[in-house]
Amino acid sequence: MHENSRETYSTAKEGVQTNYYGTKHVTEALLPLLQSSSDGRIVNVSSFFGLLRYLRSEELKQELDDADDLTEERLDELLDTFLKDFDSGKPALDARGWPGELASYKVAKAALNAYSRITARRHPGLRINCAHPGYVKTDMTRNSGLLTPEEGATHVVKVALLPAGGPTGVFFAMGKEASHYRSDCYPGIEIVVHRTHLEGTISNPPNTRIAVVTGGNKGIGLEVCRQLAGAGITVVLTARDETRGTAAVEKLRDEAGLSDVIFHQLEITDASSIARLVEFLKERFGKLDILVNNAAIGGVEHVDDPSFGPKPVGEQFNGMDWQQRIRWMYKNSRETYSTAKEGLWTNYYGTKHVTEALLPLLQSSSDGRIVNVSSGFGLLRYFRSEELKQELNDADNLTEERLDELLDTFLKDFEAGALDARGWPGELASYKVAKAAVNAYSRIMAKRHPGLRINCTHPGYVKTDMTRNSGLLTPEEGATHVVKVALLPAGGPTGAFFAMGKEASFV
Fold it and tell me: What residues have CB less than 8 Å from 418, skipping those under 6 apart?
């Protein structure tokens, strides 16, 4: 909406005249009739955009929040100043600390909120309140909202029909009394702009659990998002591609009725993308309760198997047991130095960098949890060197620095064609080494941060793009094993490996 809206002086002036002065003039004209009622009420339909947090000047915020001393005359002066600053250009708006995008709408709604409080003070016999109906699909939002008009209207009507003697001069967000100042004081809908993309998000009370799922737009990740949201957790679904991530959120909302799912772009190998996610979470929630590191790649090039012919996806594997399916995977995958390096960088270092960036937010939770989606291929049995097995299994003495050295050695050996001599895994070597490193890293982190629950989980052999749909389990079934670890009882195990929901050995 921000990206696809253009605000001119003419539209800004018209917006202030309609949204503030139009409402004010109607209210003043009807006041005598309202006072003739034994229980007169005024409900001004406002917006979260009218919250004072959108003003960039502390002086403006304080003045508009001073319900005891602010006057209508001063409001007129402020609005006149706003329009003059708008006419002078963006530098003047920035210098005075007015809102940025949709400035006129935000200023008019903030003025309406202030006027409602002034009028409530002046007419104590009336109930005069403001109502934010939620982010609604209307012509004004170009149908980008999350709620239907019917749903939005219920929040307005609830305020209109409050019991006699109820509150006055108050701001209601989606039917609940809230602050005029901040948006994180109530459960409601808010707009978040990251990069140039607009997403609806959920505003949550402090006791709501917040989860981040990486690689959440499809497969196991999407189903983890579905199941966590179904458990009453607000989920931030992340994905590299904004279009696919947004579509995934819409799918969860439309098909499953899950409104507590938010999309935020994340490329786990991009430091700036990670930083944007951290800043969003910090500003929006101030904490993180659950991190599910699910994003991963196969680290191989796929080779087409001509023997399958035009059979539908999944039917190619009818009659094969799991061992035959895995052998087929080996046979029809090609691993190059380039794919091996990319696999290691994504599956280990990407997971590590996201985890480290989000640690402070996880530590702000009363029960922070990290679930690293690993694999049966990360078990140490796939290493052919006993020395490597012992070193990677030595949770008490292994360090991150030593892990880095081992991974660097692996890549050098891969490039030199020396994997066999050093005893690294054979087929899918990069994937196996990266997942073994994730397992080891999880144990190191669990020891270093005993206040967090940090575990690995093998979801099973799942039908996904990565397995080329050769798996035995559906994404839904695989996700249940991940979610089970994410939602273990408080005080449960940490530094453990779970295989299909049950605690198991790293070896």
Answer: none
- Distance, in Å, from the CA atom of 102 to the CA atom of 54, rounded to the nearest integer, reads 10
Active site positions, annotated: 431
What average pLDDT does this structure show over 290-317?
72
Gap between the Cα atoms of 146 and 455, Å rounded:
34
Give pLDDT tens digits for 122-173.
Answer: 999 999 999 999 988 888 887 877 888 998 999 999 999 999 888 999 999 9
CA angle (160, 161, 167) in 5-degree steps: 75
Band of pLDDT at residue 313, cut at 50, 70 and 90:
low
Q: In this structure, what token pair is assigned to residue 212?
A: 């981040």
Q: Note the pTM of the prediction, 2 decimals.
A: 0.60
Q: How far is CA 304 from the centre of its chain?
A: 36
Instruction: Judge contact between 464 and 472, C-beta under 8 A.
Output: no
Helix or strand (DSSP H, E) at 74: helix 72-88
Q: Which tokens sit at 62?
A: 């304080």
What tokens appear for 164 in the block?
């006699």
pLDDT given at position 507: 79
Q: What is the pLDDT of residue 314?
A: 57
Q: Cα angle vertex 52, ends 48, 58, to 5°?
A: 160
User: CA nearest 452: which of 421, 417, 415, 496?
Assistant: 496
**Residue 312 CB neighbours (<10 A):** 7
Residue among 151, 271, 272, 129 nearest 200 (CA): 151
Residues 6+ apart with CB under 8 A from 139: none
Structure tokens at 392: 């990677």
Asked if 259 and 329 count as a contact pair (C-beta separation under 8 A), the reply is no
Q: What's the confidence (pLDDT) of residue 180?
A: 64
The alpha carbon dihedral of 17, 19, 25, 26 has a sign of: positive
- Whether residue 120 is predicted with pLDDT greater than 80 in this model: the reply is yes
DSSP code at position 158: H
Q: What mean pLDDT comes out for the span 4-27?
A: 90
Cα dist from 416 to 337, 410, 420, whole Å: 9, 10, 11
> Considering all CA atoms of the chain, what is the largest pairwise distance in Å, rounded to the nearest integer?
94
Residue 146 to residues 47, 136, 185, 262, 414, Cα–Cα distance (Å): 14, 6, 20, 11, 50
Residue found by looking up tokens 């007015």 in the block: 98
Report which DSSP code applies to 19. I
Find out whether 332 and 427 touch, Cβ atoms under 8 Å: no
Between the two ends of the chain, the Cα-to-Cα distance in Å is: 52
